[in-house]
Amino acid sequence: MSAALKRRFFEQIKCLFGAEPQKPALIEERALQVHQLKRMTNKAELAAAKEMHRAREKHHSWRNRRWAALILVNLLFVVSYGFDIQILEGALTASRFIGFHLIDLNSALQVMLAHKHIITNLLIGTGTVLVLWILLGGRSFCSWVCPYHLLAEWAEKLHLFLVQKKLVSDTPLDRRWRSASWVIFALLALVTGYTVFEAISPTGIVSRALIYGGSWLAMLWVLALLVFEVFFVRRAWCRYACPIGLTYGVVGIVSPLRVKYTLESCFHEGDCRKVCLVPHVLDTVIKGRAVDTEVPLGPDCTRCGLCVDVCPTGSLKFEIKGLSKLL
User: Fold this and answer.
1) Collapsing DSSP states into helix, strand and coil, what is residue 100?
2) Rounded to a whole number, what is the distance in angstroms from the first to the last CA of the chain?
3) Which of 73, 227, 242, 256 is most buried by a 10 A CB count?
4) 209 contacts 218 by C-beta, under 8 angstroms
5) Residue 17, Cβ neighbours under 10 Å: how many?
6) What is the DSSP string of 121-132?
7) What is the rounded CA–CA span in Å between residue 208 and residue 210?
């Protein structure tokens, strides 16, 4: 890893906790040459090339795969409970897949803080989950498994439609609120002896409602969150409040699966940043920001694949670290 990429890596970790991306202080010489070449390119030719690539039909292959995987996982819970076939039992917070115990990392932490001691059974259950999300990338849980994420994604489409019609406006919040939320819920569990977050987490509420049928009061809370996101703040819960995303983001720091950006082929048209849930991870695609000719996105990336789907030049692709073949 080059010196610039190492520095970029630590800056990406800071962004995970809410820091704003900064202009790079160190850029590799090979990347500087590409940046300079792009500045020298005839603007008319560059504009024509952009339009040609923009005209290419957009596809949604990664989005469709992700939706299918998310629906399948949650459907397995429903089918296993409804027909008592013991494939995937429980709910997302704690489950058992053909005999393997799976416990959500954030839920396990909340329970141990509430009980004020380390619970061996919880550690065993989190071990499998920890390995799984280290391999797949921490925040891929959010976009590939979490049922609230899918509801919020559909609500986001409505929000963006209303913004386009100038009926509502988006009001971004400080991303450091998510880190503050993590600390607040951890302290509440420690002080009260009760897992407060689990009571209001839309992830757990929707998961349990799908499987066992939910409390109307709890579902009203989820509906209120979605309404707030449609009319006021785009993806408010996932971006600014949910500690689960931060927990899995930390786990995913060393994940071998990632989205990689290639500088040479990029026209910096910005379509990727428009669709991204966490556009700060795509700061590197802004003209002049890439610190090297190839830059992996940071750990706050949800691996949702939306940027890969919309990139007209293939400058964003999934990659397994250490393997030259791209997905």
Assistant:
1) strand
2) 21
3) 242
4) yes
5) 15
6) HHHHHHHHHHHH
7) 5
Residue 276 φ/ψ region, left for φ over 0, alpha for ψ in the -120 to 50 degree band, beta for the rest: beta
Backbone torsions φ then ψ of 292, nearest 5 degrees: -150, 175
pLDDT digits (tens, 9 = 90+) for 99-117: 788 899 999 999 999 998 8
- 294 forms beta bridges with 262
Give dist(CA 317, CA 159) in Å, integer.
Answer: 27
d(CA 37, CA 48) in angstroms, rounded, equals 17
Write down the H helix ranges in 84-195: 105-115, 120-136, 140-144, 147-164, 176-192
pLDDT of residue 41: 67
Strands annotated E in the chain: 88-91, 94-97, 100-103, 257-262, 294-296, 316-320
Indicate yes or no: pTM above 0.85: yes
Give pLDDT, residue 315. 93
- Band (pLDDT 50/70/90 cuts) for residue 325 is low
Name the β-bridge partners of 259: 318
Asked if residues 294 and 260 have their Cβ atoms less than 8 Å apart, the reply is yes
DSSP E strand stretches across 48-178? 88-91, 94-97, 100-103
Neighbours of 246 (CB within 10 A): 21
Q: Read off the tokens for 80.
A: 């296993």
